[in-house]
Amino acid sequence: MEKVTEYFGSMVFDDRIMKATLSEKVYKSLKRTIDRGTPLDISVANAVAAAMKDWAIELGATHYTHWFQPMTGVTAEKHDSFISPAPDGRVIMEFSGKELVKGEPDASSFPSGGLRATFEARGYTAWDPTSYAFIKDGTLYIPTAFCSYTGEALDKKVPLLRSMEAINKQALRVLRLFGNTKVKSVKTSVGPEQEYFLVDREMWKKRKDLIMTGRTLFGAMPPKGQEMDDHYFGSIKPRVAEYMTDLDRELWKLGILAKTKHNEVAPAQHELAPIYDTTNIAADHNQLTMEVMQKVALRHGLVCLLHEKPFAGVNGSGKHNNWSISTDQGENLLSPGETPAENAQFLLFLAAVIKAVDDYQDLLRLSVATAGNDHRLGANEAPPAVISIFLGDELTAVLDAIEADKPYGGTAKEKMKLGVDVLPQFSKDSTDRNRTSPFAFTGNKFEFRMLGSSNSISCANIHLNAAVAEVLRQFADELENASDLNSALHELIKRTIKEHKRIIFNGNGYDDAWIAEAEKRGLMNLKTTADAMPHICDKKNVEMLTSHGIFTEAEIFSRRDIMLENYVKTVNIEAVTMVDMARKEIIPAVAKFAADTASAVAVKKSVSEAACKYETKLVTELSELIDKMDAATTKLEAAIAKFKTITEIIKASEFVRDTMLPAMEKLRAAADKAETMTAEDYYPFPTYDKLLFGV
Ligand code: ADP
Ligand code: MG
User: Fold this and answer.
1) Which CATH superfamily is domain 163-551 in?
2) For the domain 566-693, what is the CATH code?
3) Least confident of 233-247, 337-351, 549-563
4) What kind of architecture, by CATH, is found in domain 4-155?
């Protein structure tokens, strides 16, 4: 068997291949573009394109595609072959620098939130040389950004790159204040832990809800759920293990650093975590990982569910976004240092993150808001919809000491002197684990735990980077003008703690008492997508995002509309699917069972009146439930009809939240009750016990 070290990255046009296939001049010029963003000369682009094509053809590729991430949340691709006619009737394989650098897909069918009327259909894709090209299924994939012809971002990569640039710029200003002149760039890194479910494909095929919406819209709890805690880290079943092995291999070929795999809390739930990488690459790789996960599953007769809440009653799936900031010199700015000066710098960055999360709670919350994730957040399994930061006891004690001007850890009565040299020294690895916090410090990085499993990580990181960049800007402005840096620094940190400590919470985030406490502290509790999303257009958010060049105002408004449209369309599809299943499958099945039971009553009655007590009671109860289901379905149909008449998107989202979703819940409750009373043979599709324990 081939060794991992031999096939890892074998499908990637990475640095090693670039070095081997490009002339030194071209390689150096490309490197400058990758590292510093200097524009690429067309002659260099031509040389790179030729080398890429030869390499790709050697590995069996016949096509190339500009791979991009429109606002749909999934990736898009249009394949062109390399062929070009030759005079003798044959073909040659061609790929020019122009084709590498720029593509022109018809943009009219992608969501733009009104940014681009369909008559101006043109959009273009631009090569992102910082993310390596790769080969998948006989096609050369070129990671690209997607813009309208007037330059507005129509995707998630453009604003992500802009947010990384913003934080780079502001963090450098702060580092210069500490006398650091060596650092040339600062980058954010992310390690996204990806949760997912695996179900049997034959069972999946029988469920319209899974096929249409990715989640079960009906289903009573099986006798066993996750209460035994026997699945988390449990031994992996052979069929799942084979899947995971195959998946690792496919990901490794694509240069994705898949590292950790294990069973998760819910039955049939698993997790995959890669080694962290630069945010932009991590985002591309996570999209690719989700796609490969689903494809490899099919080869094993499985379906990989990435929905945030495929099953009610057991945990849903999230994606933990482990985030840090580091310099090109390899220094992690969120890592407590050894010396007081290093610690002062660390504390400043820590304070910046605390203030950023407090000031922009709404932006972080709405960056993870989708119809699917609404079923998780606040549902006693995932972090609540309220944002707070977990720091652990030791770090919190350090901040308390700074705020109170007391020495940290000591008992001395003497007041802590101002200045960098007396900021407390403390040890690394001081954090305990808290699995209920939305935003937890884990020693040298923050773990943002609210992301849904199917979310692109781009949105969360755009907003997180932007918010931290903004606070670093404010800090740099203040400190650059200070006459005495040390005391200004101390004052700034102290003031920041005082003003923003309300966002710090080290307790149990799943506790109802915390939600009440959070309200007292004035923290936001944006329960649904409909509540959260409009806040992106709040003045303070628009000002911040535009001032750092992350979005234009038009882009912000368009994104709100796209995300809300996504929300209402998702729920509407679910509602329509429910009606379909109720009318065509569930009600007929239960009615048939009731009718057959009633016939039994008729037969038995001729023998003895008393012999039919059970059947009579059952028929009565089933009939009541059938009427209930019918009534609930009729209500839902009315809601769907009403929904069609609402044209204003905010109103539509409120209608979905206040009317449609509650109507769906009513129908589900009646149907799930009926399921528990209907003989298994009559039930039209596989139930939870089979789906959750059938692999
Ligand atoms: P846990 O499940 O305990 O949270 P894991 O080890 O499963 O931890 O996942 C942690 C993730 O954090 C991995 O993807 C890892 O590569 C990533 N990570 C580790 N260090 C950093 C860092 N400095 N910056 C960003 N991500 C990191
Ligand atoms: Mg984690």
Assistant:
1) Glutamine synthetase/guanido kinase, catalytic domain (3.30.590.10)
2) 1.20.120.1560
3) 337-351
4) Roll (3.10)
Q: Which atom of ligand 1 is nearest to the CA of 275?
A: 16
**Residues contacting residue 191 through CB under 8 Å, at least 6 positions apart:** 273, 274, 275, 276, 277, 282, 322, 445
- Residue 293 in contact with residue 74, Cβ under 8 Å? no
**139 CA distance to ligand 2 middle (Å):** 34
Ligand lying nearest the CA atom of residue 442: 1
Ligand nearest the Cα atom of residue 383: 2
Q: pLDDT confidence of 408, banded at 50, 70, 90? A: low
CA distance 355 to 350: 9
The pLDDT value recorded for residue 73 is 82
CB 332 within 8 A of CB 325: yes
Alpha carbon distance 372, 364 (integer Å): 17
Return the SS3 of 346.
Answer: helix
Residue of 186, 188, 193 to test ligand 1 pocket, by largest number of atoms within 8 Å of CB: 193
Locate the ligand 1 atom nearest the alpha carbon of residue 320 and give its number: 4
Among protein residues, the one with the nearest Cα to ligand 1's atom 19 is 276
Q: Which ligand is nearest to the CA of 322?
A: 1
**Burial code of 624-640, b = ≥16 C-beta within 10 A, e = fewer?**
ebbebbbebbebbbebb
3-state secondary structure 159-200: HHHHHHHHHHHHHHHHHHHCCCCCCCCEEEEEEEEEEEEEEE
Tell me which ligand sits closest to the C-alpha of residue 191: 1
Tokens of 570: 């998702």
Q: Is residue 445 in contact with ligand 1, taking CB distance under 6 Å?
A: yes
Please state the three-class secondary structure of 279-301 as a single string.
Answer: HHHHHHHHHHHHHHHHHHHHHCC
The per-residue pLDDT for 421 is 45
pLDDT tens sequence across 155-186: 999 999 999 999 999 999 999 999 999 999 99
Q: Is residue 111 lining ligand 1, measured as CB closer than 6 Å? A: no
Contact 695, 667 (CB under 8 A): no
Distance 440 CA to ligand 2 centre (A): 9
For the chain, the domains span 4-155, 163-551, 566-693
C-beta of 435 in contact with ligand 1 (< 6 A): no
Alpha carbon distance, N-terminus to C-terminus of the chain:
27
Q: What is the pLDDT of residue 117?
A: 56
Ligand 1 close to Cβ of residue 123 (< 6 A): no
The best mutation among 289, 322, 390 to test binding of ligand 1, ranked by most ligand atoms within 8 Å of the C-beta, falls on: 322
